[in-house]
Design brief:
By secondary structure, this protein is an alpha+beta fold. It has helices at residues 2-11, 17-38, 46-70, 145-159, and strands at 78-84, 89-92, 94-101, 104-111, 113-116, 119-122, 124-128, 132-139, 166-170. It contains four helices and nine strands, in the order αααββββββββαβ. The strands form four sheets. A three-stranded mixed beta sheet has the order 1-8-9, with helices on one face. It has a two-stranded antiparallel sheet with strand order 2-7. 9% of the residues are buried.
Length: 173
């Protein structure tokens, strides 16, 4: 490729120096664009951040559940896995404006913003965390009916998960 470029530039007359400069700048620009695609950006996507937030949320729930369940008499070692039903939901403040005059009706709304350190951001009113879809527990004492019942009641009352969405199994080994 370098040889072809030298040949191209060599074929141009000396009077075409401006053209040589334009071509060189254009090629440099194309090369920079190609290199920028190869270098990973330092910014995280919103979806990557959201995924890591969910993983942290689930990990925290699982750790707390394991601690609680393992404190039940007869459980022994236990491992808990929790699945979520949906994503979290954030509710932001809005200004609502309704106009009705001479037979016409219009409605408009806009978010309430405040000036913070990071610029203008919407005012958060409420945030709903994801619902728990199901819980799986693997423990040493799962073969005991009373232990299984205690675990099921604890999870059901703690998270509001129906009994049909709670699975308890015996730990292998």
């Amino acid at each position: 490729m370098e040889i072809k470029l030298k040949k191209l530039f060599g074929d141009l007359k000396d009077s075409d120096k401006k053209l040589k400069i334009i071509i060189a700048v254009a090629l440099a620009g194309v090369m920079l664009i190609m290199l920028s695609e190869l270098v990973p950006s330092g910014d995280k996507n919103a979806s990557d951040t959201t995924r890591s937030d969910y993983r942290e949320y689930i990990a925290c729930l699982e750790a707390e559940s394991e601690e609680l369940i393992s404190s039940i008499s007869g459980v022994g070692r236990c491992k808990v896995m929790i699945t979520l039903k949906n994503t979290n939901e954030s509710v932001y403040a809005k200004n609502l404006e309704e106009n009705s005059s001479s037979g016409s009706y219009s409605k408009s709304d806009e978010y309430v913003l405040y000036e913070g350190q990071e610029g203008k951001t919407p005012v958060l009113i409420k945030e709903y965390f994801p619902d728990i879809q199901g819980v799986a527990v693997v423990c040493d004492g799962a073969d005991n009916t009373l232990v299984r019942e205690s675990i099921t009641e604890s999870i059901s009352s703690l998270y509001g998960v129906p009994v049909s969405r709670i699975s308890i199994s015996k730990h292998k080994g």
